[in-house]
Queue: 3 jobs
Job 1
Amino acid sequence: MTEEKKPEERKKRRTATEAAGRVGSMTKAMLANVPQAKGEGRPIAYSFICCCYDEIIRAMDITPHWVENYAGICGAKRDAQRFLERAEAENLSRSLCTYALCGLGFDAWREELGGEMPPDAPWGGQVKPDVMLGSGQMLCDPRNKWFQAAQHYMPDVPTYDLNLPWPPYEEDYDYREVQDDYVKYMVAQLRGLVEFLERHTNRKMDWDRLSELVDLTDRTWNLVHEAYELRRAVPTPMGTGDAMNTMVPLSFMMGTQQGYDFFKELYDELQQKIARKEGVIPDEKYRLLWGGGLPSWFALTDFNYFNSKGAVFPAETTYRMVEALYNFDIDFARITDPLEHIAWRWLKFWTCRYDKTRQRPGSHPDVERLIDYIEDYQIDGVVMHEAFSCRSWHVGLIWQLNLLKKIYRDIPSLVLESDIIDISSYNEADTRARIDAFIDTLEAVKSRAG
Amino acid sequence: MTEYFAGVDIGSTMTKVVIMADAVVARVVGASGPEHRRLANRVMESALADAGLGFSDIAYVVATGYGRINVPFADRQITEISCHARGVASLVPAARTVIDIGGQDCKGIKLKDGRAVDFVMNDKCAAGTGRFLEVIAEALGLSLEEMGELSLQSQHDIEISNTCTVFAEQEVVAKLAEGVAVADLAVGVHKAIATRIHGMVRRLKVEREVVVTGGGALNTGLVRALETKLGLPLLVSPEPLLSGAIGAALLGKDTVRDAAEKGIPVTRSRQPLKEATFFS
């Protein structure tokens, strides 16, 4: 039976930094904290990353269970298939987001078992929440519908759907003309979330605590930015493989002292490695940009395979959802309302390359970001991953690549094709044959350049 | 003294070996099949016999194709992208784009100065590959060659709407039952494959001259359909089945020449001509 299937044992991926090596145990502890909190009567919220509510739920002592993270863990442990198949048995289309399918399959199964975890659930499983906090912001459309679908199995769990839009880029107008309206709208959304949480969890917002956490998050953003900027060094001390570990504190521990401390340690470690000229690999030949797409969580050892060919990834766009706040054209010190502060931070993150983009006719902010990283990190080639089930993040990747080549330069590129957690879409031999061929083209281009 | 170089291309369907000096002196093509681990050395032995050479006469052996790791006697493994690029560039020096229609994948390669600088591959789906043609030809009761020739006699435009090989086969069988002419169906199939290939290679910004290689290049009907789709005349490689193996041999020759120019020794595998095992 499908339920009896055991996950395939997987060779552990090598990390370049000690900090990234610690993330596995941090993640395990983070997950273990959820059933413990539930046992102690603290409310649990099913949560998504990058929804601007990190500080809000932490200020109200609500424990997040990060559903995307849990699906990723199932994928990394090569144990997602049985949950995907369970969702498919519920007649949910296999072409939907496989994170959502994994989570919904898990919830359907757990509720069918009367609240018991499915057998051998990875890392303890996901407990039934008290609230579910969806998001309708433009990053990812399934996050509107996932929790509404989850209510089929948990009709007694209320959901709040947050909407966090930002002004779209247009070449011929300045977004600042409308930015105040966007912020006003987002603040109303966030205030609605606070009211929802107070109503459904019997917790009161501690506004002073919220302000402290907003400040902590600001400092963490700056620290992450500065730590990642150290990766410009040649040889680079940290690659994207490690960044797929450090995305855990970046995405799931924002607004916590633990998250801040992690990046302080990472910053210090990277500085030490640079002083020792210690790179990800001893002989760095090709510097690559992970230019878009979520990784195949079950195939992170592909990053080691790139390394074995002399290729490193000093930078990636994926999960780098922070910028240096001191570079934004806004004085955050003048904003006293923490919700308004959160809204401005969000808006400025998404619009921070608009002015630069307008300087290059025909360009787009997403492409300007690629160009920034190519230049700042001395990049030789761009690798993207098209995950078939993730439409929102992956639609437009090829368009970005084509535009990059048109308005900037004809940089070598590789597009990998698979999925985030559905291993049935992956073929290691074919993937590595593509990587081999890409390395050949990088070599050919370098040779031509002399 | 003449130096000889061997290229071994183990594809998903066919295993190809060429032995070259200044030109090809021997060529052997055999079916890969499930026993291709054992086949490489046999095909190599056959090629050596044709050339009247012993294995020790070969200065360098390069293996390529999906089975390249199963050639223990090869001195080096090089990807099929690089080998096809080198092979086609030597056969058609004006080539700027290569479309390789293989048994179970399809590749587009962009060339500059005879080397691959960009590529795209379809290895996820049989549609757009030789396998799709084989399945449909079987359903029509034709050989691949017959299907190519027959399609040129078509009188009507037929669309095969399914891109999945299995469902396309069902669709073809259903249309046969409706009385659609086999020649028209063959055209429909070629158009369907050409559409898939076009969708893939257009990412490369196809530039003339465009050379088609691989087993699919032997199908005249498919090449015509692809020309129509691309809106460009296509050149068929003079050695469609051997482009990769020739490129492999030439890259071996380049390796030996570069080493001599730099005054460094050539690293060789020193493995005897034997079949691969799981432990080799």
Note: The beta strands of chain A are 44-47, 63-66, 131-135, 159-162, 286-292, 311-316, 381-387, 413-418.
Job 2
Amino acid sequence: MKFETPLLDQLEQGPWPSVVSDIKQEAAHRAANPNGLDYQIPQDCCEDLLGLLELSYKDMETHWKHGGIVGVFGYGGGVIGRYCDQPEMFPGVAHFHTIRVAQPSGKFYSTKFLRQLCDIWDLRGSGLTNMHGSTGDIVLIGTTTPQLEEIFYQLTHEMNNDLGGSGSNLRTPAACMGMSRCEYACYNTQDVCYQLTEDYQDELHRPAFPYKFKFKFDGCPNGCVCAMARSDFAVVGTWRDDIKIDQDAVKAYVGGEFVPNAGAHSGRDWGKFDIQAEVIDRCPTHCMSWDGQKLTIDNANCVRCMHCIDTMPRALHIGDDRGASVLCGAKAPVVDGAQMGSLLVPFVKVEQPYDELKEIIENIWDWWIEEGKNRERLGELMKRASFQKLLEVTNTEAEAFHVKEPRANPYIFFKEDEVPGGFKRDLADYRSRHQR
Amino acid sequence: MAEDKEVIIEYLKAKSKVKSKHYFKDFLELFPDKKSREVKKILSDLVKEGIVEYWSSGSTTMYGLKGYGKQEAAEEGDAEA
């Protein structure tokens, strides 16, 4: 290695896989060059990256500059300019841009796809990847400006794959595996994710938003893509009817015939399955009861936490009248701290061509583009302008479930058209009943 | 469309001494009667023609006249071109 890295080496000593070990492995691979590649960016870029990172730990400040003018022709996202501020010391990472690549829906890859991607990236980039970024896309870490168009051409023409979103764009939409693998999927997450990605190409690639905007699609409330925690517009599968119960299977769980959690926690002896302690008492709304023979659920009070279904999957199943809830405004901290999504639409049938969802999305965008401040997430605008305003722009009638804390704000006024007869009154009639 | 492009170019040139990168919202104010999508089309066309370019921090994107202000490896505090 070109540089001593005593501080980074400490990071390899913990119990977890280390990013430092990964970079060292790639640095050694590039130095050996077993495939005889004509590397298009400096061969020792990974060693320079380690050197730069070591210096950052030593100085306790970053040596990366922030952003720049790089991209591929016609796209306003997908490439993020990265430059280091010690280019003489670390020339291999003087220009070290990030490329975001759209992941396949549900992250289903063929080995051919992964090989093609890695072949391109070995030749034209650092060989370092992040599978996957927080948004869910493939992140290719480190290349130079002249390689960008080459990589873009190969991705699109040879792999039929697009760049992802970055900047003030719609970010690469993400979905869980949905119906392809999961019995709990309440709608076709992969299809809606793919369809909306196609329909909103302009929003993905040509920035015109105040800031980032993320869609995510979870097939059920287990939330494998964490839609309601990390997306501005979360679609989370749910059902309207009752949880289906197979009473014989419940008894089989109680009797020890079936292992709970489908054997997921079988690495340790937890003792005999206790339905009261492990299911009934864990229900957040206490809407379940077990009399020793029969399991009963008060479905009106079920909040779809999924715990009982996950614990006894052979006995309990999601209902048959399936669709999704829409939640808005989740975000990570910057302004106001982190926020979870707020429930806007409790149930919508998610069916092709997804016009109901698209109408809500487009109404929200129109409002956010008009009223949102620069660098203001939807969740922050909702907080600043009120949830009531979100209801108004999405043509949603206020319902009790929209109220987070009743009477927290005494100054919510009716509009004249919401009041029968308006605000005008017959003064003579009033005075006939009330003295001046 | 050509007139609208001129409005944007004039605005960017007039501001170029004090500000070389602009948020998308700045352009909406130039066209109060137009929808945001129409304004975006004008800007996208200017980008295609190589007159306007994107600047991105990775999280936020701004628009500027090509070649003006901070360039590729530049950032806050650097001398402007």
Note: Residues 55 and 61 of chain B are 6 Å apart (CA to CA).
Job 3
Amino acid sequence: MSNIAGKAYAMNVITPMRWYKVWLNRLIFWAALKAPNVLNGLLTLSLIHYARWVIIPRDKFPRLDPSQPKEELEYSYMMFFSNFNGSWAQYVDSFTFAIPSGLDLFWKMNVRYPKSVPLTPFHDYIQHNQIDTSHYYTAYPMAASNDVKSAKNVKKALIDFNAASSNKSPDEFLEDYNKLLNQLQHDFGEMRPTPIVSLAAQAVKERYMETQAGNR
Amino acid sequence: MASKSGNATALTVLSPIVNGIVDGKSFADITRERSLRIPIHEKSPLAKVPNTYLARLFILDNVFYESLPGSDSVFNFSEITSILSDSARKKALPRKDQLKSKYLVFSSNFYGDLDEYLTGMWEKWSYDDNGQQRDVRYIWEHCVAFEGVSDATSFIRYIKRCQLDATLFFNGSTDDSLQEQLKALYLKQEFSKFAAAHQGKSAADVQQAFKAFIARVQPENLSQPSWQPGQSTP
């Protein structure tokens, strides 16, 4: 089991909702998509790489063959997948503190959703409905979501600066170079494990090394 | 489509696993064990599947019973009726659901077109499993109707039958190609080191070193030098 890959954490949550409320929940998500300011709260949580909500009506679980038993469910289900940096508690708490009303809006239709405030029942709810990941992969284990975004700024600024500075005198070059460093100071930073990414990521690594050595 | 955010795509796949047991192990447990044994980081088969940002595999064994206290409605009528009646109180409890199949869940965030991505999965997914080379069929082998999959076209058709559309896909990162993201990360890393190493040097020295730096890192060459997908050490 590994919910962790380097600096990223994979969260999977599945929660039931009454089947006749699915349309209302879809409407809420649709409205959130149409009014991007609703999602601005999520943008402030800059620790997220990508996240998604998937609503599965109770009769829409994939059935590929008549030999597969047909699901007979009381509830429809909402699955939530997130890829974020930091610990589980940091993430869940940041939702509660940054966007409690938006969070409640998305989960409101779910059975026994306790609301995001106060914190402890919300922690219990997520833990109760969370499923561990078997294999988790990120293309950049050493990079946080903010690193990916800031790297884009660095790349563009570096290319622009190189094009603009090629024929300058050393003094003019240095002046512009210092301006560039000032401009990018929030985007700099080396990405390292130093000395380990986290105790959890280290545990994943050690467990993996054990399985590779055939010691399990 | 809610599964797209710019050029980034959210793929959600629920593949039902055959109900059955072989040598005392259920097909779901066999699939889980195989998923758990996949090598991590740069050795993951997903590092070879072009344009995968982040992806995961897990088994959905069942859904959960909502046994914790809580309320999901603004006004819950049963809370009134159940004050007066024991049977109303019991009926106000959440219902119990049981899945009849277990599902292999594959969730990926990637750049670009779905068909192209799935072709990449079919063609490139490979890894070493204690000396045995495994392809993508090894993970999906015990899923319902997967025996009909024999090439990229039938694999794409199969995965699309298992696909669920996202109701909301949130992109908190970028939607650039993976090669673009990895090159940018490489440049951020290298330029951060360069800036730290050249503080306080003369204008001529910095200018000369910068020229050599640009020649080395080749900012506009996406293929190299760069970070490799899944690279776990700087």
Note: Chain B has a mean pLDDT of 94.
